[in-house]
Structure formats: C-alpha cells, structure tokens
C-alpha cells in the first residue's frame, strides 16, 4: 500500500519548491523518535502544500511500519464543519491505519498512551472488494462493504506546544494515528437499508458513570459516514479487499481521564445497537 504513496513522494521531490517542504530523512527520524518516546514532536511540512504534506506522510509511514506494523487501511479526519473551521481546513484530511494500532473491544490501557492523547467516537468500514472504487453513492459503496465495526479511535495529536496545527501539518503527521479499539462486525446485508441506518443512527459516547460526552446523528459525518470513503476515493485512494476505513469523529475529541473507568460508544439504530468500550487504568 505504501508504494503508490512513496511514488507520489518521489514525484513531489522533483519540484524545487517541494524539496524544502517535504520532510527530510532527518526530520522524519526525529519525529519517529518523539513518537516512540511519546513526547511532543516538531511539525512536519510547516508552510508546505497538501502535496508536500502527503509526501511527508508517506515517508513517515514507511519509517513507522517497523514499529506499527503494515498499513491496513485509511482514515478520514476533520469530517465535520466545526473541526474544519478549527484548523482552517476547507475539506477533510486523510491518514493511514496500521496493524499494530488495533485493540479489541474492552481493552484496558494506561493513560497517557501518547504525547497528546485523545478519545473520539468513530466507525470503521471493512472493504469487501475493489468494486467500491467505482461507487458514487453511499448505497453503491455499501454493496462492496462487508461489515461495519464500532470504533473508538485513540489518536495522538503529537505536536509540541506552539507548533502549527493546520490541515497540512495534521496530514503530514498521519492525522494523529496511534491506537484504536474495534468492536464486533455488523454485517452489511441490505446496502440501501444500511445507508439509511448509518445516516439516522445516534452515536453516543459515555464515561464510565454513564455521563454523555458526545451524542450525534450518523449524518454528522459528511451527511453519511460512508461519504468519508467516497471522499478518500475522490483523492486517489484505491481500496483493496480487507482494507479498513475510519470515517472520522462524530463529535469533539476528549483527553483521557485516568482512573475514570474509560468510555463506551453506542450506535443506536444499527442492528443490535452495538457498543464498543475501552478502560483506562489508574
């Protein structure tokens, strides 16, 4: 999966302006060192274009694979208008998912798990076949999605205080990929009905005491969560069978609260009203 990204990076480096804006090997190495140590990092590609940022992201992904495992899919970030406005973006951003970041439902972990750890209510689509690459609507795309999986993403905003948070620097650092908790698969049996349910469902993230942290309809993500996959496709992503697609957050991100028992996310309106949860240790 990294070959097309690295090829694009190579092309970007042929332009003189991109040479300065795509992260150098030394900058990538320093970022990876901070990432592994879970300490705040310097921004990659500050002031660069989105093409520069994607070049940096590809180089970073190659450097992270020995630590995070192979790339197993893609993620969309800034998929709501408030999130875009907060970071001066006009559309979502794209990142990558790694094999070793995925935890199973009910996982317990120490907080903090990163330099700037956060918690978000998300959702994952599991690609069934390459036919999704020709889809134009959520219903068409869902005909090529084998399952929906509840997902609590545990991103790491990573950057040191005072570093620029822009759509480009967020993209360059991989859109905060760190960890995530996957719930059980919900099979897609009727694409049209699933498209409706995904748009109309209510996604609720609660703390261990039952307090509501986030509550939003499915349409809060680009009108329908599956539109995140269509947006990624419009940016040149070529999906393969088995790829995971993280659609983005249904509401604000929250810092973890150690000793508070963790969080759960419920998807009321999907078959069985599935729930996924994670615990935070003292």
Note the topology.
Blueprint lengths: L1 H11 L3 H6 L3 H13 L12 H19 L2 E7 L3 H6 L6 E6 L3 E3 L3 E3 L9 E8 L10 H5 L2 E10 L12 H6 L6 E4 L3 E2 L3 H10 L1 E6 L4 E6 L9 H8 L9 E3 L16 E6 L6 E7 L1
Parallel strand pairs: 1-11, 3-7, 4-13
Antiparallel strand pairs: 1-2, 5-6, 5-11, 6-7, 6-8, 9-10, 9-12, 12-13
Helix pairs in contact: 1-4, 3-4
Protein name: Hydratase
Keywords: Signal
InterPro entries: Fumarylacetoacetase_C_sf (IPR036663), Hydratase-Decarb/MhpD_sf (IPR050772)
Q: Key features?
A:
alpha+beta; 8-stranded mixed beta sheet; 13 strands; 25% strand; 282 residues; globular; 9 helices
Explain what you see.
- There is one protein chain.
- The chain is an alpha+beta fold.
- The chain has one domain: Fumarylacetoacetase-like, C-terminal domain (Fumarylacetoacetate hydrolase, domain 2, Alpha-Beta Complex).
- The chain has 9 helices and 13 strands.
- The chain has helices spanning 2-12, 16-21, 25-37, 50-68, 81-86, 138-142, 167-172, 191-200, 227-234, and strands at residues 71-77, 93-98, 102-104, 108-110, 120-127, 145-154, 179-182, 186-187, 202-207, 212-217, 244-246, 263-268, 275-281.
- The strands form 2 sheets. Strands 1, 2, 3, 5, 6, 7, 8 and 11 form an 8-stranded mixed beta sheet that branches. A 5-stranded mixed beta sheet has the order 4-13-12-9-10, with no helix packed on it.
- Strand 12 and strand 13 form a beta hairpin.
- Helix 1 crosses helix 4 and helix 3 packs across helix 4.
- It comes from Leisingera aquaemixtae.
- Keywords: Signal.
